[in-house]
Amino acid sequence: MAGIKVKELGRKDGIKLYLEDGSWVLLRPSGTEPLIRVYLETNSPAKQAKIAAEMEASINQLAPN
């Protein structure tokens, strides 16, 4: 995930990726809308932007054509 290894995977309230550097990303499908919400926490704005861009690209690959 943006060059950081995933150390643990949680499945409470969605799919949560715990990264080795202490960052995390939560993917949570909406129960009322056709969308996936992405929450994340990092220790730098640059890392946040990189992870967010990677998640957006990954989710876009799942979208029907």
Structural class: alpha+beta
Rough shape?
globular
How far apart the termini lie comes to: 25 Å
Q: Could you report the average pLDDT, rounded to the nearest whole number?
A: 89
Largest sheet: 4 strands, antiparallel
Q: How are the strands of the biggest sheet laid out side by side?
A: 1-2-3-4
**Secondary-structure element order, N to C:** EEEEH
Radius of gyration: 12 Å
- Any low-confidence stretches, pLDDT <50, length ≥5? none
Beta-strand content estimate: 25-35%
Q: Helix fraction?
A: 25-40%
- The number of helical segments is 1
Count of DSSP strands: 4
List keywords for this structure.
single chain; 65 residues; alpha+beta; four-stranded antiparallel sheet; 4 strands
Folded structure, characterized:
This protein is an alpha+beta fold. Helix content is 28%, strand content 34%. It is built from one helix and four strands, in the order ββββα. It has one helix at residues 45-62; strands spanning 6-10, 15-19, 24-29, 36-41. Strands 1-2-3-4 form a four-stranded antiparallel β-sheet, covered by helices on one side.
